[in-house]
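Second opinion, please. Pick holes in both lines of this record:
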Amino acid sequence: MTPEEMASHLVFHVKQAAIADLMRFGEILAERNEVMNLVGPATIPHYWSRHVLDSAQLLNHAPNARTWADLGAGAGFPGVVLAILLKHQSTDSAIPSPDLPTSGHVYLIDSLAKRCRFLSEIVRDLGLPATVINDRAENVSLKVDVVTARAMAPLPKLLGFAEGFFKRGAEGWLLKGENTDAEIIEAHKHWSFQAEKFPSLSDPRGRVVHIRSVRRAK
């Protein structure tokens, strides 16, 4: 997949400056991955589909969200991709909202120091509107529009990690895999919430899951 093919799947305009930042991010990722094992080596050649489109599709679903918390940010998916796109969005974007602010921010939260050093390097080099937080997700409670995660934990545990964000009004937009239905069923044993599933643009087996009204089951 080319950058242009990736962008064609999105409902908003991806500026060339954003493509340039995404290309630079991919170059740094490939270089660091040789010594840090940030992502599966076999996924590097499929960077635009497996990682960028997978992350960017979240903005198709939540175009008005301006503050995001990425739990278990790891190599920067989806958080760094979202930060790059938010950096280059403006009011002339094709996202249909007359009230869309011109700035956004992403909190990249990870418990592993070496991953946070990598993320901090990316944020600094690309001048991204993002803050790196080296801590366990359950220890962090911020007021954001959306809490997200990819490949961090099964949904029952993930809802616990994100509980502080939900209590402060966040909605969840989560990237999940082929076991989504089973995870939702299991999570309902411990949590009360509303869930809506959407097909993933990057993998027919994947799902984008919208989580709302989260509270512990009585």
The beta strands are 67-71, 105-110, 130-134, 146-149, 171-176, 191-199, 207-216. The chain has one domain: 3-216. Confidence is low (pLDDT under 50) at residues 91-101.
